[in-house]
């Protein structure tokens, strides 16, 4: 769900690199980051979520990245780890405007590819979306492997919807930018057809932030790059919470960039039947390279 920032005259859209573990999602995201000119992109940031790492950065496409006089800023996310909690993926996919499904072309990974595609469909359905309503491209990664599965077999297994697909290798960069830029063009076309007036404003952002994802949502952990908390707003516990009702803390929405190296993390504090939504502001360190 793209969001309008009236103050900056920007439209913010989210793209998620999704796929099975070890398929090359984080490597693909880093390749894109390194290929973009610094004047068009923000810093790469990292946040620990359970036993996984969420990587993200933003960029503005030059030239055609403009809708009714508003600059379009794309926020790219992925989650990397051998066992990513489904709640973490569901959180990241909330409000997504486009998906790059990174499939693993290694023959022994085909069952994991299918399970991951099923998970993506289920997560989108939980938000009333589908592979039809959310632009999606298929990145057939590791296609440079000597024993890579045939493209026809991958298409037959993973692509009954006939999504745009690209042979790729995140190691040497083949096809990675092509897949992403194809998706960016599709998302931009959709934004232009809606126009700035038809895109969700800041009041929509508040709804997105404050609606809890799930009671089992992953709790944020201190990032490996050691960001320092700066300031928390409304951090007092719910009124009347006693010792007999211990407090619990849940992640209640997708973290959002608040400018510079600052990120806002929506949280829900619970005590018994009472709950209160707060926003934690973090200053993140930058991962070099």
UniProtKB/TrEMBL annotation:
InterPro entries: Gliding_Motility_GTPase, P-loop_NTPase, Small_GTPase_ARF/SAR. Signal peptide: none annotated. This is GTP-binding domain protein. Residues 210-257 are annotated as: Disordered. It comes from Citrifermentans bemidjiense (strain ATCC BAA-1014 / DSM 16622 / JCM 12645 / Bem) (Geobacter bemidjiensis). One of its GO terms (molecular function) is GTP binding. The keyword ATP-binding does not apply. Keywords: GTP-binding, Nucleotide-binding. It holds the Pfam family Arf. Residues 227-241 have a biased composition (Low complexity). The keyword ATP-binding does not apply.
């Amino acid at each position: 769900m793209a969001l309008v920032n009236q103050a900056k005259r920007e439209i913010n859209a989210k793209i998620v690199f999704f796929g099975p573990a070890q398929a090359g999602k984080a490597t693909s995201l880093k390749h894109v980051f390194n290929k973009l000119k610094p004047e068009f992109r923000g810093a790469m940031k990292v946040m620990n979520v359970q036993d996984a790492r969420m990587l993200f950065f933003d960029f503005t496409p030059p030239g055609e990245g403009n809708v009714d006089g508003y600059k379009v800023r794309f926020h790219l996310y992925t989650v990397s780890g051998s066992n990513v909690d489904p709640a973490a993926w569901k959180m990241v996919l909330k409000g997504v405007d486009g998906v790059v499904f990174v499939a693993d072309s290694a023959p022994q990974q085909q069952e994991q590819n299918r399970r991951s595609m099923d998970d993506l469909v289920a997560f989108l359905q939980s938000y009333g979306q589908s592979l039809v309503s959310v632009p999606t491209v298929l990145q057939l990664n590791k296609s440079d492997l000597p024993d890579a599965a045939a493209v026809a077999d991958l298409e037959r297994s993973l692509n009954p919807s006939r999504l745009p697909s690209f042979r790729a290798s995140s190691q040497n960069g083949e096809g990675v930018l092509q897949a992403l830029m194809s998706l960016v063009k599709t998302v931009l076309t959709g934004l232009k057809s809606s126009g700035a007036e038809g895109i969700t404003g800041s009041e929509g952002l508040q709804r997105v932030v404050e609606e809890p994802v799930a009671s089992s949502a992953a709790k944020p952990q201190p990032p490996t790059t050691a960001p320092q908390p700066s300031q928390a707003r409304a951090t007092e516990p719910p009124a009347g919470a006693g010792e007999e009702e211990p407090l619990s803390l849940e992640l209640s929405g997708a973290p959002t960039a608040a400018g510079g190296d600052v990120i806002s993390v929506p949280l829900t504090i619970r005590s018994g039947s009472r709950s209160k939504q707060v926003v934690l502001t973090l200053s993140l360190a930058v991962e070099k390279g």
